[in-house]
Amino acid sequence: MLTYIVRRLLLLPLILFGLSLIVFGMIQSLGPDRLLAAYVNPGVLDKLTPVQLEKIKQKYGLNDPMMIRYVKWLKNTLQGDLGWSLVGKQPVKDAIMNRLPWTVELALYSIVPVVFVGVWLGVIAAVNRDKFLDHFVRIFAVVGWSFPDFVFGLIVLMIFYSILGWFPPGNLSLWADQVIKSPEFRRFTSIVTIDALLNGRFDVFVDALRHLVAPILTLSWLWWAYLLRITRSSMLEVLTKEYIRTARAKGLAERVVINKHARRNAMIPVVTVGGGMVIQLFAGTVIVEMVFNRTGMGSFTATAATQLDYASIMASTLFYSLILVIGNLVIDILYAVVDPRVRLG
Predict the structure, then answer these.
(1) Which among 189, 218, 206 has a CA at the least distance from the CA of 102?
(2) How many other β-carbons are positioned within 10 Å of the β-carbon of residue 124?
(3) Distance CA 285, CA 283 (A)
(4) Largest Cα–Cα distance in the chain?
(5) Is the sign of the CA dihedral 295, 297, 299, 302 positive or negative?
(6) How far is CA 73 from its chain centroid?
(7) Which bin fits 308, alpha (ψ -120 to 50), beta or left (φ > 0)?
């Protein structure tokens, strides 16, 4: 397996190189003047002299042949010069770094309830096949998967905020936002819930959690419905295998048969689906962030697309591509961890 991992890691730069070519080629149909707006603050663009404009075009290779322009773009990208964000009204690098922690925080807090509860419900449904609990869980799955995410998000927002007033939208309350922006609040990880505890601000921690509950509930409901269906189908197939009947014939407790023999062998398709889900969470859940007014990567990318913010779109695409490539590598490695019968060569 070590050889496989090393080979995949060696292929990673080549894959990213191909992705960079695709992303770079996406906007090269634009003329130099249009591309210039992706690298310079439009507010000062009209104030620049022709000599200054020419220097900027030379820096980014906007008048150069395609390959030279790509080399300069790649060099600037590796140095963190990703252009100017029209949406964030700041350099793209700063705009992403300001929004990424909100998406990472939502993803981290969503993984545990989404994955573990979804798998648990699928196992429960399979073990109690055609019983009341199985029918109830399957109805739950059908209803959950039938709801569009924005509809369910609006329902959650209406019930838990408009009616009950428990879980407000946004990232933080106004007072908490002022606290984290104050000089006294130290940033250790840029993830508010963690930094609040490290700063001894339990009130900010609670406020951040209140703003996370509704989007986590929305994401969890939708992914529970999908994961439990995959888990149930895989578990039902495994429970018919001969080694399961042999384990039961030996007198092993049903709990041991289910947890040690059946569930682990049923995890291969679940790892595939769950891994893709985790990748999507870290890449940014656009609809959920838009519904709950969270300023994360998902809402940032969606807004950039509607405003034709080319620099932000390119940077976001590169970010998503990197998450996808690394995530798929981790999923392949988990195959061998979950099921020793799988040998990666």
Answers:
(1) 189
(2) 18
(3) 7
(4) 86
(5) positive
(6) 26
(7) left
Contacts of 337 by beta carbon, 8 Å cutoff, 6+ apart: none
User: Rounded to whole angstroms, how far apart are CA atoms 204 and 211?
Assistant: 11
C-alpha to C-alpha distance for 314 and 20, rounded to whole angstroms: 9
The two three-digit tokens of residue 22, written as one number = 């695709």
Identify the CA nearest to 15 among candidates 344, 326, 331: 326
CA distance 114 to 25: 37
Give CA separation, 48 vs 31, 54, 90, in Å. Answer: 19, 10, 18
Tokens describing residue 325: 């490539």
Report the C-alpha gap between 68 and 73 in whole angstroms: 9
Look up tokens 């130290």; give the residue. 186
Contacts of 176 (CB under 8 A, 6+ apart): 203, 204, 207, 208
Q: In sequence order, which residues have a C-beta less than 8 Å from that of residue 70 and are 6 or more positions away?
A: 21, 24
What tens-digit pLDDT sequence spans the chain (345 residues)? 677 677 777 888 888 888 888 888 877 766 666 677 777 777 776 777 778 877 877 777 777 788 888 888 888 888 888 888 888 888 888 999 999 899 889 988 888 888 888 888 888 888 888 888 888 888 888 887 777 778 888 888 899 888 888 899 888 999 999 999 998 899 888 899 999 999 999 999 999 999 999 999 888 887 888 888 888 888 888 888 888 888 888 888 888 888 777 877 777 777 777 777 777 777 667 888 888 988 888 888 888 888 888 888 888 888 888 888 888 778 777 766 666 665 555
Separation CA 182–CA 192 (nearest Å): 13
* Residue 17 structure tokens: 């190189």
Orientation of helix 310-338 relative to helix 267-283, angle to 10°: 160
The closest alpha carbon to 334, from 268, 287, 286, belongs to: 268
Assigned token pair, 142: 């059908």
Q: How many residues does the chain have?
A: 345
Asked if residues 70 and 161 have their Cβ atoms less than 8 Å apart, the reply is no
Residue 168, CB-side half-sphere exposure with 13 Å CA sphere: 8
DSSP 3-state of 25: helix
